[in-house]
Amino acid sequence: MIRLEVPLGSRSYPVVVGESALSEFQSLLPSEVSRVAFVTQEGIDASIATELPSSVHYLPDGEQAKRLAVIEDLCGAFAREGLTRRDLIVGIGGGVVTDVAGFAAAVYHRGIQVMHVPTTLLGQIDAAIGGKTGVNLEEGKNLVGAFWQPCAVICDTALLASLPERELRSGMGELAKYHFLGGRQLDALPLEERIAACVQIKADIVSADEREGAGRALLNYGHTLAHALEIEGRFDLRHGEAVSIGIEYAALVALEMGRIDPARLAEHRRVLDIYGLPRNLPDGCDVDQIMELFRRDKKAMTGLTFVLDGPQGLEVVEGVPENVLRGVLTRM
Fold first, then answer.
1. What class has domain 2-163?
2. 323 is known as an active-site residue
3. Per-residue DSSP letters for 122-184?
């Protein structure tokens, strides 16, 4: 069992990584909790036993869960059950579940405790750590949300054994990102240590920049194009697959701008290829539509904004020339 901490002063919390981490649930319960509301989706096999009064709330499948109407329904159910600020919400599932459970916890009674039990690789290394929650609007992904830190995160690696191969590979798309955030030779580690290393990198970034002022935005490497592809919606892409294509695109943009050399581009491709991830745009991409979606990205405060590699590593770069972005998209 590997125990880490996200250091946020009085709001610090543990992250437990290991093959039997679910056995730690009881010991991680805050002492004042009198009722537990589990939030999950059908088909997720991660039951947690508790002697406390509890209820289970099922979300719709996939991105359909990430809607304001779902948050309203969930909070209504909490109110009918009599949940108070002393109680606990537990999100059990992938990134969609922890995003929704975390956002509901942030707004119900203006804040109720939440614990996350991520059941996917993507959730364990990224989505469940750091307190970013949110739902989508038709205009874009994660445009409505809150920063709300959990009281604990349980990453039971045994849950990954039942993941479909494509779902596991999707998680590798997010894992690839961490190679360029200080992880370097992550692929040389056993899976459990790889997950813990990603958690540690994210914990360090979150503790230095909890609300995405500067440094935390680096966690969006590869995500600007990824989110545009997901919003466009016509492509059969998992999130990690879209991120992988976004990382390839960001590296090509950085090369075009003279920020990196061909050897660094080759390292990007080595990492993506190790995990069997896609690097090409899906057929039928509309470059004009993708460019419009870039302008709606929540990082775009001063012109078109991207996280790009460079001589000092990853940086948030504002005012990326439109002709460069459009040209690289066209060539991809």
1. alpha beta
2. no
3. HIIIIITSS-EEEEEETTEEEEEEEE---SEEEEEGGGGGGS-HHHHHHHHHHHHHHIIIII-
